[in-house]
Amino acid sequence: MSKTKVGIVFGGRSVEHEVSLLSAKSVINNTDREIYDIYPIFIDKNGLWHRVNIDEWLKDGALKVCNNSFLTPSLNYQNPLFFEIEDSKVIDQIKLDAVFPVLHGTYGEDGTIQGMLELMGIPFVGASVLGSAIGMDKLVMKAVLNEASIPVVPYFGFYSHEWETQKDTIREIVLSKIGFPCFVKSADLGSSVGISRVVSDPGLNAAIDDSCRYSNRILVEKAVSKPREIEISVLGHENPIASLPGEILPHREFYDYTAKYLEEGTGLIAPAQINEKMTSKLRDLAIQTFKSLDCSGMARVDFLINSETEEFFVGEINTIPGFTQISMYPKLWDITGISFTELITKLFDLAIHRQNEKSKISTDIKERSE
Ligand SMILES: Nc1ncnc2c1ncn2[C@@H]1O[C@H](COP(=O)(O)OP(=O)(O)O)[C@@H](O)[C@H]1O
Ligand SMILES: [Mg+2]
After folding, report:
1. Tens-place pLDDT, residues 319-330
2. Using CA atoms, how far apart are residues 362 and 299, in angstroms rounded to an integer?
3. Partner of 344 at 20 to 30 A CA spacing, among 6, 240, 271, 352?
4. Which residue, judged by its Cα, is nearest atom 2 of ligand 1?
5. CATH code for 4-124?
6. CA 54 distance to own-chain centroid
7. Rounded distance, CA 286 to CA 213, Å?
8. Best residue among 136, 192, 228, 258 to mutate for probing ligand 1, ranked by most atoms within 8 Å of CB
9. Per residue in 31-57, pLDDT tens?
10. What are the residue ranges of CATH 3.30.1490.20 in the chain?
């Protein structure tokens, strides 16, 4: 039987480029080679696409670019093709059966590459354009979750140009409705970039100025007191399932960029030590969150629990969670009974299933017979 040809796209033009390389390496290492032929597609920081030799990369750690390559959204060809080029000539064409975008953040997790794959009609792992775009924007995500009566931390959102012209009004709203301590965030970034914890007024303006450097969409939200950070993995399409919960124990004031990537010391506990009642509530809520945001395939839902009052909130959703060997998403499935390799197979199956379902949707208008 011929193997399924899968493209694994990684790197990308985002601050999370390096994390993507680590995630892609462990996805490739854990993909079942009996079932899949892997076509690794590396996007460099300038946005150029390359084919790479994975065996060398997996062996000695150096990422060597082979040829330039591209995928085309044009349907001139009967099937989605992946082209390799040398000296401006196409030297190889491969029909891909599915693609796994192992990209985090901007141009990867935000609906942009999903839009391209959607145009190509190629099955791909993870949320479609809508779910990806909502999941990437904390303001829209919270608005949708509010509408679905899913608890989110109280917040106030505004544009950076409004901050420039209406500072006093924005400050008044933040001081009266949000208070201190609070978190100031750029709405559409991940990895804790552009996020500050502010404990009193003198720090507010500087924190908002800092977030405005990274985005034009800003939010300020109440800080959850003595927070416990619980994460749950979700997998599926029409009937998604939720994993056992895990807990993050940051060794710093909060789970900031340094704690995530630069310093060791953060504890990852799986399963989280929380009671059965709370576990079951959060697992249900993770599935509701996944469905409300039009997710598909996979997502990690992160919760914040006030450890004094046990009040809980959905903090955020990651539609392409980390996939490194120590990342929570595969780890939580592993302790729930799905190995890394089985997980990847399920994700490709879900991608192909969704595409089949989608192809049944009519794009022609037909008059209904009375
Ligand atoms: N409202 C909040 N209360 C307490 N801690 C928070 C709050 N919002 C964010 N944090 C802390 O900041 C971290 C990053 O925030 P998050 O919204 O998850 O952004 P990112 O998408 O960058 O991961 C969280 O993991 C948590 O440690
Ligand atoms: Mg987070």
Report:
1. 999 998 889 999
2. 28
3. 271
4. 223
5. 3.40.50.20
6. 24
7. 32
8. 192
9. 999 999 999 989 999 988 888 888 888
10. 154-222
